[in-house]
Amino acid sequence: MAVSHDQLEQAEVAYDLICLSHLRWDFVYQRPQxxxxxxxxxxxVFFVEEPTFEDGPARLDLSPxxxxxxxxxxxxxxxxxxxxxxxxxxxxxxGLIHEQGIAQFVLWYYxxxxxxxxxxxxxxxxxxxxxxxxxxxLGAPPLLLERETELLKKADLVFTGGYSIYEAKKxxxxxxxxxxxxxxxxxxxxxxxxxxxxxxQAAIPHPRLGFFGVIDERFDIELVRGVAEARPxxxxxxxxxxxxxxPASLPHLPNVHYPGGKKYxxxxxxxxxxxxxxxxxxxxxxxxxxxxxxxxxxxxxxKPVVSTPIRDVIRPYGEGGLVQIAETVAEFVAAxxxxxxxxxxARLSKVDPFLAQLSWERTWAEMRDLINTLVLxxxxxxxxxxxx
Length: 388
Hints:
18% strand; Rossmann fold; 35% helix; 2 domains
């Protein structure tokens, strides 16, 4: 049954959204936060994080946020086994649905591992937003690939965080749609205007080469070290939490600085003080399918960008002349030198028309329409019919 856009706007599509995520809401503000917060403007949303472990019996902590968003954090006892942990989470999730009076709902997965405690539920629709190839990440659970196969079969809609991961998933599920990283242009465009330099960055000399994001196994440690050693007069500002790798393994040189993680609202002030923005990602299994959200964010901030040859950065950013691509230390140094001499106005004349087509608001609206079309079609279908 076809449902027009006007019908979607006029119809009341009543459901709550339950999001099951491997990422914590307050860790790094990225794709889940941009999308899920927008759903919360029009319906109740429960964002269920991975559990924490502490003393005492299992419980679910609820933290109401802006609009209709509630963060749900399972607290499980120390020493609980994997099967017992899934049973506890199943019970806590059932309790949440009962206590909050959730009758009609859509399930939105960020991690296939959540199937272990949610596969008994009967949602109006099941969504899998495959933002990363989680099986390639350091410490990925052995069951992840098996669970992902199950989820791809179960999902009514699969969204992907980039075109490379779309190519890998498109033949494994019925309805797969690429939704690459978008950008909140006004937020980052503030960095194009003079900003007060944050206190922990103010004393760092120029030229400054900056990066923000999670510093983990995707980070090319030796490339960063090589660039810093090759150009000691350049200062590299690496913003973000260090996760899953030893901090001691990072280059600790006089011109490499680690101010730590920063809030999303603080980023434009830091970026405003950079001369070049970097994407120093390693070439390994964990980066094979990534589509870095920070690429359009750097561009919206008005900075020249130099990246290692990540497929979803090469296409479309490198091919469009929006980002410089370099692999070796020598190539990276040469690209940064060129970036430092770029004609800013000429670069922005290419960047801004591209970014005008790439907003989180537009991405969310397209996702919402796909979901609502599915839900409405199922509601209108005769008993015994299926929309698949």
